[in-house]
Design the sequence.
């Protein structure tokens, strides 16, 4: 499966933004990050230009952009097994598995106030 050496490692970080185009302009200009545009609501940056893979998503209605913590995304070679382990350890799934270009992911709460995500191909 996928990338076994990356299994359960921090793989991606995601920020919210009130305007992803403006975020792209800012980080491109100040830090020389390179972006892939996935539409009006999502852009991603890569490890080569930013030091880690990540992205900016359009903030949801009523959500204060940047007002919540960035979303740390872990990689899993076996998404279902990781989800089962999270639940067995007392965590909970807060966003069920969904598909996106390049894979699938879910978000979970660790039971002590943190929400992270896990993705796989």
Sequence:
């Amino acid at each position: 499966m996928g990338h076994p050496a990356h299994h359960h490692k921090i793989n991606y970080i995601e920020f919210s933004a009130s305007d992803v185009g403006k975020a792209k302009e800012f980080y491109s200009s100040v830090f020389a990050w390179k972006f892939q545009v996935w539409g009006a609501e999502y852009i991603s940056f890569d490890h080569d230009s930013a030091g880690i893979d990540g992205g900016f998503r359009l903030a949801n209605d009523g959500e204060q952009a940047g007002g919540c913590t960035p979303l740390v995304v872990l990689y899993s070679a076996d998404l279902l097994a990781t989800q089962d382990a999270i639940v067995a350890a007392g965590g909970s799934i807060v966003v069920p598995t969904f598909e996106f270009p390049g894979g699938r992911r879910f978000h979970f709460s660790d039971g002590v106030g943190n929400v992270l995500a896990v993705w796989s191909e």
About this structure: Residues 4-120 form a domain with the 2,3-Dihydroxybiphenyl 1,2-Dioxygenase; domain 1 fold (CATH 3.10.180.10). The chain has a mean pLDDT of 89. The helical segments are 20-31, 47-50, 79-88. The beta strands are 10-17, 35-37, 42-45, 54-58, 71-75, 92-100, 103-109, 115-120.
